[in-house]
Every structure is written in structure tokens, then in C-alpha cells.
Amino acid sequence: MSRAALLVLADGRFPAGGHAHSGGAEAAVKAGRISGAASLADFCRGRLHTAGLVAAGLAAAAALGTDPVALDRAADARTPSPALRLAARKLGRQLLRAARATWPSAELDALGREFPKGAHQPVVLGLAARAAGLGPVDAAYCAAYENVSGPATATVRLLSLDPFDATAVLARLAPEVDRVVDRAVEAARQAVDGGVDALPAASAPLLEIGAEAHAAWPVRLFAS
Amino acid sequence: MNSSGVRSVARIVARDDGRGGTALPVLESDGPLALRRTRGSGAEARVMLVGAMSGPLGGDHFTVRARVEEGARLSVGSAAATIALPGQAKGEARYDVRLDVADHAELHWTPEQLISAKGSDLHVTTRVDLAPASRLLLREEQVLGRAGEEPGRLTSRLTVRVAERVVLDQELACGPGAPGGWDGPAVLAGHRTVGQLVVVRPEFGADPVTARVLGEGASVVPLAGPAALVTAVAPDALRLRRLLDEALTSLL
């Protein structure tokens, strides 16, 4: 395993389209639920332990070689909002393009054939990690971290929040990211033998409701 | 002191009686889980879950199993809200609901609210297995704490399978000791009640519901399968029920 490969995959400049998505922050800012660094931290913490845990579990399971079709269905069942399913597939398609160019692999080619409209992004992320010679822990870290770094970066733009404050929010969440990754990888290892039902299914009602409200806006800064 | 808590399993089997109605060949109450058949309407059999004592308390493990056989129609409600309370016994309480619905059968599972009282620790799992030509209406409402009270710890997982494919798998964890951020802007944002309606109908496969929001606290969405989900949050149980009723009316 190359630690530098992890930095390439986790780099916010990796050309996979993530910057166009706010992870629900745009809807939460509009509703007045994020108004500064403190509420951003609370938002990110809640997202980390719900959507972040689920994404990390899926990514870790994909990196372990679990059937991507079963994982994609598990992602659908854990993503009731059709706006979020669509966003996850668009992001998955963009990530797959970038990953295939970066780490060519037969598994990524097969994933592209199986899901012409895109598989859920965490599933692609796990297979991209695998193609890059990384393991389930790395894949889970990428998924969990980008689940909070996305909303933090978006909030800097949405609220003109001080970027130092936003970065401090992410730094203070680091121990919780570690715990989420531990849980996700443990569940992913159980899923290898026990099936995908063993993966985390933590949900966040307001992320789901907010995503549908956001998708109906005529004008928005972020795609989701 | 009994440290193992109460184990209790109640069972219902609903069967087409061949005369246009539904028979209940199995209606087994057990300890605190008491079942009563009440007057149904038309082809439907109606059962009320009557709490014969309070609970579940810490250490208790309740299970309710219902099977609706081909062509039968069953509606299950409860006489009152279920209150999770702290107990003498150590550890969490468990409440498991297992529902099976066969082809051309229909189940309405609409119990009253589950109230998570201060100091309680309850883990609920609800698993529904549906045949491809079956129908379901399922309502879950969680109330975090009695009036003005902080909640206990509540973890609730809801899994719905249609034709052996999982169409919904969601877990909500809240209260003291739950992973951080549960009361924050991504999850509940201070709302003290949360509820879901799951509606499964074969015709939703070809003609899914249109995704929409009802105000700021509820959404109606098509799942990846012949099913629709309503998710709602509200400040109190009354407003939550109104939101869910309004959403259900829009689905009929």
C-alpha cells in the first residue's frame, strides 16, 4: 500500500466533482439551521455519524471485494431520498471516470459496464481505493472525511464563514472520524460473510427531508 | 431481583376464511403483550395490542410476530402509546417486530406512539417481509421524552423487503449516549417527535409516487422498489400525527 495514493484519492482537488455538492449544507443554511461555526460543527457531527457512517461502511465493504451490485442495492435502501440517490450516482459516475484514468483496473471497467448511469459514490470509492492498492480502512477514512469536509467547504462559500473556523471544525471532529471508521470497517468485515444487511444503516431525517426541499428549488448554488 | 427482565413473544396469524373475511387461527398473547380481536371492517380482521402492564423496562425483550397469509387482510393497532421506561434490570430493553405478508394479502400496522422516557434504553427492530403482490401500510412514531422531559436512549431500525429485496433499511439513534449530533441540524434539530409511514403497493412499481415536501418537516418519496416513504419531524406528537395523516391522504 502506498500512503501517497491515499492522499491522491482524498485530495479535494481530485477531479471527481465533489465540490459541486454541499452535503445538505445549502438546505440547512437556508432553513436557518446552520448559521455559524458552532452549528456547522453540530451539523457535521450528525452527518458524520449517519450518512458518513453508512458511506464509510459501503466504501470499506467495496474495498474488501464485496459484490458491488449488492452494495449498490444496500445503498439504495439506505438512501430513501431520490434526490440523494441521484446525486450519489452522478458523483459515482464522475469518480469512476477519474479513477479509471488514474488507476486502470478490470474491476473498475466492469463497474462502469454494470452501472452506465453510475453506481453509488461510496461503492465506487471503495473500488477505486482497491484499484489504488489501498485497503478498507483507507476507503472508510476517505468516505467519512469527505462526508464532513464537503459541507464545511460549502458553508465557507454559503455564509462567508472564516475558512480557519471551518477547518477547525474538521480538525476537532477527527477523533470521531476515527471512531466512525472503526465501526464502519468492523461492520464491513462482518458483511463479507454475513451479507450487506450487516452494514450500518444510520439515518438523518432532516438530511432526507432537506434534500427533497433543495431539489425543488429553481436556483441553487450546489447540486445537492 | 430478577436481572434478566421479561421475555415475551406474541403471535398473530391471519388467514383468508374462504367466505370473504379474514380468520385469526393464531392470536397468542404473552405476559405484558396482550392481543384482542376487535370489530374489523369488510374483509379485514382487526387486532388491538393492549399493554397489560407498563414496559418495556430495561432488560425486557418483547417480540411481536404477525403473518398475513395469501388473500388475508389484517389491521393491527394499539390501545395506547408504548412507554419505554428505565428498569431494575441491567442493560437495554429490546422490542422486535417481525411481519410477513403473502401475495394478495394486506397489512395495516399502525400502533400508537413509542415514548422514550428519561433514563430508558430501548432498541427496537422492525422487519417486514413482503411478497411481490402484497400491500402494506406501516406507521412508526417516536416521541423523545414525556412532556417537558429529556428522552431516554432509543435506537430504532426499520427494514422492509419486497420480493426478498431490501427497499428500505434505516436506523435512527437518539438520546443520551447516542452518537453525537442526533439533536443537531442534520438529524432532528431539536424536534421531539419523528415518524415514518411506509406504503407498499404493487402498482408503485410502474407508477411511483412523485417526491415532494410537506412544509419544512416532512417529505414523501418513492423508494427504489414498489414503495413510498413518508418521513416527518415535529415538535410534538399531535403535530407529527397531523403531518403523517396529511401525507397519507395525499397518497390515497
Assembly of the depicted chains:
heterodimer
Could you say which structural class the secondary elements and strand pairing of chain A correspond to?
mainly alpha
Largest sheet of chain B: 11 strands, mixed
DSSP strand tally of chain A: 0
Shape of chain A: globular
How many discrete domains of chain A? 1
Main sheet properties of chain A: none
Biggest interface and which pair forms it?
Answer: A-B, 43 and 37 residues
Distance between the termini of chain A: 33 Å
What is the second-level CATH architecture of chain A?
Orthogonal Bundle
The total of helices of chain A stands at: 10
In CATH terms, the superfamily of chain A is Urease accessory protein UreF
Principal-axis shape of chain B equals globular
Number of domains of chain B: 1
% residues in beta strands of chain A? under 5%
GO molecular function, one term (chain B): nickel cation binding
Protein name (chain B): Urease accessory protein UreD
Keywords (chain B): Chaperone, Cytoplasm, Nickel insertion
Family (chain B): Belongs to the UreD family.
What's the short story on this structure?
Chain B: InterPro entries: UreD. Chain A has 224 residues and is an all-alpha fold. Chain A has 10 helices and no strands.
Secondary structure layout:
The complex is a heterodimer of chains A (224) and B (252).
Chain A: H1 3-10, H2 25-30, H3 37-63, H4 68-77, H5 82-102, H6 106-114, H7 121-131, H8 136-159, H9 163-194, H10 205-215
Helix pairs in contact in A: 3-4, 3-7, 3-8, 3-9, 5-6, 5-7, 7-8, 8-9
Chain B: E1 7-16, E2 22-28, E3 33-38, E4 44-51, E5 61-68, E6 73-78, E7 82-84, E8 93-101, E9 106-109, E10 114-116, E11 121-130, E12 135-144, E13 153-162, E14 165-174, E15 193-200, E16 212-214, E17 218-222, E18 227-234, H1 237-251
Parallel strand pairs in B: 1-5, 4-6, 5-8, 6-9, 7-10, 8-11, 9-12, 10-12, 11-13
Antiparallel strand pairs in B: 1-2, 3-4, 12-15, 13-14, 15-18, 16-17, 17-18
